Amino acid sequence: MSAGVVILGAGQAAAQLAISLRQGGFAGPIRMLGHEPYPPYQRPPLSKAFLKDRTNIDSLFLRPETFWRDREVVVETGMAAAAVDPARKRVTLADGREREFDTLVFATGTRARDLPLPGATLPGVYSLRKIDDVCRLRPALDAARRAVIVGGGYIGLEVAAVLREEGRAATVIEAEERLMKRVTGETVSAYFLRLHRARGVDVRLGGRLVAIEGADRVTGVVLGNGERIAADIVLVATGARANDELAAAAGIACNDGIAVDHCARTAVPGVYAIGDCARFASRRYGRTIRLECVQNAIDQAKAAAAAILGEPKPYDPVPWFWSDQYDVKLQIAGLFNDYDAETTQGSPAEGKFSVDYRGRGRLLAVDAINDARAHMLGRRRIAAEPIEAGHG
Asked: Are 59 and 21 in contact (CB under 8 A)?
């Protein structure tokens, strides 16, 4: 009997892979192994609506339990994998049990980066990547008056917005000289700096955190200049790292993500990787990239399913992302890195504008603030750009 497809992970990418395989006519066994105690669920709302509105956990689930049962997809939750043996085609679980496979797909996602500082493990220090993180953080926020957020990226700023809307004090400490430096340009960074400061967030740019203070629990943080900032809680939002250790231990090439080709295949036959944990070569951008977004999770899963079904279709997307902060929606199309010119359309002062990023004469990315039309047109314009010879 066929061992079928085993998927390590039970997130958005894993869910889409299982759906696409069944839609494509795959009749063999499909088994998801998720280390969390939940079926596949949406992650973007964790730092937005789920944190703010305190909705029921079930509202995050991508599909009801009956959906997976009806399609004969086995979803095993609370199942942590300890080792993978591609030669024997077996996964060993943390409890010693084994699962056999014909095809293995890593959909292991990411985890919060560790903060290697004194006090980082004190009670009252949180990260936000999973449902259980929010379930721990929400009661702490309810009891807190002052919060320090380490990191001025999407998650840090989204949580800061929730805190201010609830009337709580929020300080954002960002080591770089501007907010969201990793994902956007100077004009958009400056807009969000003004937005958050106008809403009462204490934003510290170029702030180097050297310690988190407290005895039984956190009481504040210390900056490199010696300044102390009092806090009831500290949220660490300094980015994520790929969960690629299992793959690396199994001899699969990894470099801040599991290396795959344009069809999500690793160099090991019958082994794939998709979603946040996968790194692939983009001809469009002339380098390898690892994307942490819903779009990539869904579309790369579809590409992997097509390859497993024997109908490979190369994957080289125009990635897109979004962030909701207060009543402002930021939508990003493409990757702005390596740009050498930016052009603004609309009015930042009026809160509706877009920014084009160009490099080597090509449109690389478009940021749209409260302008859905500019975002959609931006995606089309980037997709229409010719791909340079020799890229990828």
From this structure: no
- Among candidate residues 178, 170, 184, 280, the one with its CA nearest the CA of residue 233: 170
Give the strand pairing for 30-33 and 5-8. Answer: parallel
Strands 328-334 and 362-369: antiparallel
Q: Cβ distance 119 to 218 under 8 Å?
A: yes
**Is residue 91 a contact partner of residue 6, using CB atoms and an 8 Å limit?**
yes
Structural domain that includes position 363:
327-384
Chain-wide mean pLDDT for the chain?
94
Both 284 and 301 in a single domain? yes
Angle between helix 186-198 and 154-165 (nearest 10):
20
Domain boundary among 278, 308, 338: 308
Cross-strand partners of 75: 32
Higher pLDDT, 47 or 301: 301
392 domain-assigned: no
* Position 134 in a domain: yes
User: Hey, is 390 helix, strand or coil?
Assistant: coil
pLDDT above 90 as % of the chain: 92
Domain end marker among 308, 342, 362: 308
Same domain, 285 and 298: yes
Which distant-in-sequence residues (6+ apart) come within 8 Å of 89 by Cβ? Answer: 3, 100, 101, 102, 104, 270
Contact yes or no for 244/110 (Cβ under 8 A): no
Contact 204, 171 (CB under 8 A): yes
Q: Are residues 151 and 204 in the same domain?
A: yes
**For the CA atoms of 99, 105, 111, 116, what is the dihedral angle to 10 degrees?**
80
Contacts of 6 (CB under 8 A, 6+ apart): 31, 33, 91, 99, 100, 101, 103, 104, 105
How far is C-alpha 7 from the geometric centre of its chain's CA atoms? Answer: 19
Predicted confidence band at 69 (pLDDT cuts at 50, 70, 90)? very high
Residues 88 and 121 in one domain: no
